[in-house]
Amino acid sequence: MALRPKHGLNLDIRDVQAASERIRPHIHHTPVVTSSRLDAESGARLFFKCENLQKAGAFKSRGACNAVYQLPPEVAARGVITHSSGNHGAALARAAQLRGIGATIVVPTNANPVKKAAIASYGALIVECEPTLEARESGVAKIVEETGAHLVPPYDDDRIIAGQGTAALEMVRDIKDGLDLLLVPVGGGGLLAGTSLVGADRGLAVFGAEPEGADDAYRSLATGIRVTEQVPKTVADGLRTTLGQRNFEIIQMLVSGILRVSDLETVAAMKRLWTRLKLVVEPSSAVTYAAITRYPEVFQGRRVGVVLSGGNIDPDDLPFNALS
User: Fold this and answer.
1) Which residues of 3-23 are buried (b: 16+ CB within 10 A; e: fewer)?
2) In terms of CATH architecture, what is 61-156?
3) What mean pLDDT, rounded, does the chain reach?
4) I need a surface site. Which of 22, 59, 284, 300 has the fewest CB within 10 A?
5) Torsion of CA 68, 71, 73, 78, to 10 degrees
């Protein structure tokens, strides 16, 4: 048996490769798009991985499918459960539906209505709770005790991390002339951790982009102590979660840095991606391009793979008026 690499982590590129094969029948191989105008403006060569076009509208389908399709039949038969304000809940509900098992999603009362509707559309049972992490976790624990359902965490889970890394794996395989750097959003850290496993294998720098109003990953990396509590204030609803323990350990070892952006910069980036790429992305996706415009010195002259993580936004609630 091959030994794990000496960085001391439980996961490596082989877990991401295995996840890629496992979930291949259940997800989209999403396209990579480019824009000569955005390249000229940034001074970099930008490659956008369109996970906004993924099943259930976000990269979360990758981790959810990887987790659900690894469950032994006797465990899967009890159903799955998680807490989620949106994209992970919809992704898990869809993965459970595909496998023919039940799913329960504990959802905070302030969840995005579009994302909540997506969860319901995949046949999951929705249980509402107060919008606190304690209420979410206690709600899940109560249902697990009553039903024996299997918990699939939103991000702090090896199966989720490996699954999320498959977006970057597809991208580096598709871009034949290679990349210098990978850039992804960071909330709970599953996508950034999984991407960093791919970056480490390919010798690529990896950066995370994060809202200033929910910058626990930046502070955790800066101090070496994981921030476990925050009061997030950001339009990027998918990035309001705190960094998971497993994710933090990987990010500490493998990530080059976290780049913070304002909500105003994020909304401007969201609009720019619409006008140039003709892609609707949610604010949690747009933080990546916002980071490119705010920190041009990091990216100039480099070939950059950018994950656009999702596109689940209410068209009646586009935040472009925040620019006026």
Assistant:
1) eeeeeebebbbebbbebbebb
2) 3-Layer(aba) Sandwich (3.40)
3) 93
4) 300
5) -70
